[in-house]
Amino acid sequence: PQTIYLSEYQPPAYLVDHVxxxxxxxxxxxxxxxxxxxxxxxxxxxxGSTLELDGDSLTLESLALNGQSLASDEYRNxxxxxxIPTVPEAFELxxxxxxxxxxxxxxxxxxxxxxxxxxxxxxxxxxxxxxYPDRPDVMARFQTRVEADKSAYPVLLSNGNPVEQGDLExxxxxxxxxxxxxxxxxxxxxxxxxLVEKRDTFTTCSGRNIDLRIYxxxxxxxxxxxxxxxxxxxxxxxxxxYGREYDLDIFMIVAVDDFNMGAMENKGLNIFNSSCVLASQxxxxxAAFQRIEAIVAHEYFHNWSGNxxxxxxxxxxxxxxxxxxxxxxxxxxxxxSPTVKRIEDVTLLRTAxxxxxAGPMAHPVRPAxxxxxxxxxxxxxxxxxxxxxxxxxxxxxxxxFRKGSDLYFDRHDGQAVTTDDFVKAMEDASGRDLGxxxxxxxxxxxxVLAVSDHYDEVQGVYRLxxxxxxxxxxxxxxxxxxHIPFAIxxxxxxxxxxxxxxxxxxxxxxxERVLELTETQHSFEFHGLKERPVPxxxxxxxxxxxxHYPWTREQLLFLMSHDPDGFNRWDxxxxxxxxxxxxxxxxxxxxxxxxxxxxxxxxxxNDTELDQALVAKMxxxxxxxxLIELSEQADVPxxxxxxEQVLTHLAQALRDDLxxxxxxxxxxxxxxxxxGAIARRSLRNTALAWLLHIDDKQGRALAVExxxxxxxxxxxxxxxxxxxxSGFESDRIRALAEFFERFQDDPQVVELWFSVQxxxxxxxxxxxxxxxxxxxxxxxxxxxxxxxxxxxxxxQNLAAxxxxxxxxxxxxxxxxxxxxxxxxxxxxxxVSPLTRWKKFSPQYSSQMKTALERIRDKTELSRDVYEVVxxxxx
Length: 874
Ligand code: HT7
Ligand code: ZN
Hints:
By secondary structure, the chain is an alpha+beta fold.
């Protein structure tokens, strides 16, 4: 496969002003009539009059230029390109293609899911529908007429506003949609199906009434309320915080069962994976509700950050994704607890994005090259991209950042632009120089800050020495220092914040400062300190960096209970637990488990003053994945055993406190989705999980009762998970059977049922995973099912996946090969756990490598999997 380079970007040779589409949908295929009004791009760099259009898996039925059919020697069909050697300056091109949505298992372009037609065009799916200059810097106005059988497909949708509809012969009908906003083809969408609609309205800040609709299959009609409310909250928030008003008269969301990712922001017609939109108290967990709110908001926010202002090319993907993730995380923080949201974001970043940044697929937030763009919808583009925008926000302050975003939207409305245009708008609005800051977009790898300190008792001066380095990554070495905002505070021995006086004459300095690191080495002095302070570093995780500082356990225990920065309070607890677990990994025998850790957890379990949402987070031990990420050469079974040992020790020592915590947080009256109620459910289910971890009899009775009596999915699933992970085998078997029996008709709950088993080292050993793949509810064509069994096993059941002997690796390689033929995007994502083979100790890494080679040697490997496997083996 070919590599595409940012440095080779050229503006398009031809532009499209208008697209007229007519879809004839049938059971055995679809005919697509497309008329493009095109003209030569005055900004084109190459001369000549050759037109090249992209195409993939299309049957060309006819081609006409300005109404004249083209003879077969007047164009070339080169498989993925349609070339017309000579075209005029301006012309109309009519293309008719035949496609087979019913056989489209890649789920790119037009395909069928549960009997309905739907599309996924980002990044390069539109070329699977018709020949087109399928690149985001070609923006056109679309009119789309959809024709289909009226009884099978009563609902016919596309982008924009409906302008005409009517009946046709043979029981067919049509609807025509017009989208007044020029858009790239990746934002095109079409849906045809037998769907019910939930309606609502939203009055915008300027008083316009917007028609809101969520379309779902009839059986899901009662599961749309939460998403609708989340949508209205998002619309209001974007007006209030970013001054962004919705622009069309109608906004639609459609739920689709078979979908490669979470959701898609098509203009006016967002298409969602069912699991990211459908929810009810008895079928969705609190985490699912929060995810739905965040994704609904994310897709809605794209209407401005992505659709009105879009990307010039796919190297700029983080322009829309990083900015929009930042916006959705601000929104979620405003809707709930900012500290808890920050903890969740940083957990994902440090566990998974840092791993990506240190692995063979590491790439900058603005990559310089790719083979298959679908492989670049990564945590680096999304999460690190959002962190980069967050740093700009923090460097500028909320007011200037808003000025910058207003300028960006005004300046570039209707354009396809670059990350550099975004930074420029921020610079122009604020007057700040972000020249060095741009390196965050160009350099891959997670910067490392080595921090040491020194206290001069006599002078009362405390000094922080900070050394920055950016590690080498594939294709990049010898990196420059980056501009890093490093937020800190200092505490006295009573836990009181100390004034940060940076000059010898200063007094009454602020309690927190953001130190701006721009050089390889910095020293900062703080004056007037009567005792050695305890530093609180990188507050609120002010930059996506690794900090190395020789923390003592005393300091961590102190920060855990005193740091006014909620994030650092949580992080101190994580660091302490990591230290305790790591010392057990290093010396499994004879290492005493830190008694102060037990006492710290006891305090937490009984702390009813502290924000209970924060307590709930603080009680969660660092995950195995994070512990692996932190180790040099990971021995997964050893990490797993050490973590289990600590959990067992804590649960045994704190048994009575756990029971008390459970009881205190049980019986909350009517189900509510407030932050307080969510925190109580989380505390109760953590206590239950710990009690069952030590096979406590009383815990078991509580779990069985909760499983049977729960009035919501968080509690029912919490009890199921606790039973499944316990030694009470008959309860485990019974609960799993009962759960399936009750929810077998609900695909989203069946996915939970699969994932509870696939993630459990008791119920998810390889033979059990293989049995799940044979289960009648499993479906290889449905990405959610594949993720909930194969993805969860390899990504979350780490001890089983890394079982000595390599059976887990061979299993994954087999499933990747199998999927590669039907859905390469999903296959390429599944490879991920194998790609970091160098991270593991030799007996594991050699077998992981062998599994990758096995995939590499498959015949007819897709471009998607080829890129991931070859880069991993390089
Ligand atoms: N912008 C959307 C990306 C997306 C996607 C990309 C590749 C293949 C399938 C896909 N489905 C959706 C989602 C988003 O970030 O909002
Ligand atoms: Zn997005």
